Amino acid sequence: ALQLLGLQAQDITLESFSHLLHSPFLGEAEQEITERAQFDTVLRKANITTIKLQKLLTKSSAFSIEKYCPALAKRFETYLNIKTPKLALPSAWTEVFMAQLTALGWPGERSLNSQEYQVVDSWLKLLSEFAGLDAVLEPKNKQQALQYLTYLAIQKPFQPESPDAPIQILGLLEATELPFDHLWVMGLDDREWPPAPKPNPFIPQRLQKTLQMPHATAERELIYCQRLTTQLKESAKNIIFSHSQKEEDTELRGSPIIQSLPEIKLDDIRCSPFISPAEQVFASQSLESLQDELAPPVSATEKIRGGSSVFQLQANCPFKAFAVLRLHAKEMDEPVSGLKPQERGKLVHKALEIIWKQLIDSETLKQTDSPALLKLIEKAISDAISTLHSESLNQTRYRELEMSRLQKLLFLWLEQEKTRRDFKVIAQEEEHTVSLANLALTLRVDRIDQLDNGKTLIIDYKTGKNNAIKYWFGDRPEEPQLPLYCVTGPETTCGILFAQINAEDLGFVGISDLDLGIPSVKLLTKCKETQATHWQEQVHEWRTTLENLGQAFVAGDATVDPKDPIDTCNRCHLHALCRIHERSDA
Question: Which string of b and e fits 310-330 if b means at least 16 CB within 10 Å?
Answer without folding.
Answer: bbbbbbbbbbbbbbbbbeeee
